[in-house]
Amino acid sequence: MRLLKDADIKNKRVLVRADFNVALDASGRVLDDFRLRATLPTIQYLKEQGAEIILMAHLGRPQDTDKSEAISDKFSLRPIAEKLSELLGQEVRLAPDCVGKETALMADQMKPGEILLLENLRWHGEEEKNDIEFAGQLALLGDIYVNDAFGVSHRAHASVAAITGCLPSCVGFLLAKEVVNLTRVRDNPDHPLVAVIGGAKISTKIKLIQSFLNKAEDVILGGALANTMLHAKGIAIGRSFVETEILPELKNLELTNTKIHLPVDAVLCENKEGTGAFRVGAVGSTGEQELILDIGPDSQKLFASIIARAKMVVWNGPMGLFETKSFDGGTIAVAQAVINSGAYSIVGGGETVAFLAKLGFIDKFSFVSTGGGAMMEFLSGEDLPGIVALEK
Fold first, then answer.
1. Catalytic residues
2. Comparing C-alpha atoms, which of 359, 379, 309 is closest to residue 338?
3. Contact 358/333 with Cβ under 8 angstroms?
4. Terminus of the chain with fewer CB atoms < 10 Å: N or C?
5. What does pLDDT average to over the chain?
6. pTM for this structure?
7. Parallel, antiparallel, or unpaired: how do β-strands 169-171 and 144-147 relate?
8. Which pLDDT score is estimated for 371?
């Protein structure tokens, strides 16, 4: 892969794929600007080189909604342009679309150091189809392509994969940093290595869990995915969410493997809102109408003691339904345990990172990945289409 610092981009028009898929509040303002700030070093470098900078990104899944809503303010990148303008201290203009005559005219009128953000790539279905013609239309806007969007590099999309066949391409500073740090974990981790894996669905993380069982000393499982594991072991979990269709595949995870650590107690409630009576109980004591919504204090102490022994910790996914205050204690406790361990720590996953940012914990981790699914696939040893395309 060619790095950005090795590419000739002086006075060139540079097309940068960024990952600006962030949560917005009810008024349409950016809730967490972590992903935006992570791309600033690449943007600043391009400015210093006198490049004309064209940023492209997506927001949400407009193609999965009613077609009348797909191209609308609901999925517009205007809030992103406004936040970037604030972070950079200069205007970031927003194009009316990512392709088309008006957008091309705006690109042609750019001056060195100016920044143009293209509208939502996913307004066009061709983006997710990795359509070469659509990629070619995007490529007409620039002289060179930079991928700085690790968070979408596991997707074979036009602005990530196909476009590399249309323009000279290189790796942005953020993507390069992601690859270096995650390659260290995947190929040459420090030991003892502890993996902390949470979240809702174990089906999306089986390969990641299996990968760490092969190289880590300990694998801690929490969140709703742990409920599926507990159910597979014959432990009562009440009305807690279970992926029943994945149960046969869990046999491949060696349920009795001593490396796997599951919650020993839990915060239980009859509804996810936490408005009903809730209690802490031992795993297995869950009532028929109760839900397991967080790990309990004994689990927090157990997991903290395991993490304390680590020299490297990798964390992906929350320990409970942390969106509700009543059920965020487990995730906070694990975060504090990782910080207190002094281990080289890597954390990823959009919701987890946003929560840590809210707590002011981001700077306390050794490396924070901007990718969730991309991080999991990379650490599982899978090829990421966006990275493979840059290696050709």
1. 35, 201, 350, 373
2. 309
3. no
4. C
5. 93
6. 0.91
7. parallel
8. 92
Cα-flanking dihedrals φ and ψ of residue 367, to 5°? -150, 135
pLDDT above 90 (res 275): no
- At the topology level, CATH places domain 189-379 in Rossmann fold (3.40.50)
pLDDT one-digit tens code per residue, 302-311:
999 999 999 9
Q: Which residues contact 168 (CB under 8 A, 6 or more apart)?
A: 7, 143, 144, 145
Alpha-carbon distance of 392 to 390, in angstroms, equals: 6
- Let me know if 308 is exposed, middle or buried by CB neighbors in 10 A (0-12, 13-18, 19+): middle
Domain over 4-176 is classified CATH 3.30.70.930: no
Q: Which of 122, 155, 162 is nearest to 139 (CA)?
A: 162
Q: Where in the chain is the domain with CATH 3.40.50.1260?
A: 4-176, 189-379
Separation of CA 263 from chain center:
25
Spatial neighbors of 272 by CB under 8 A, at least 6 apart, are: 291, 293, 321, 324
Residue with the two structure tokens 């392709």: 99
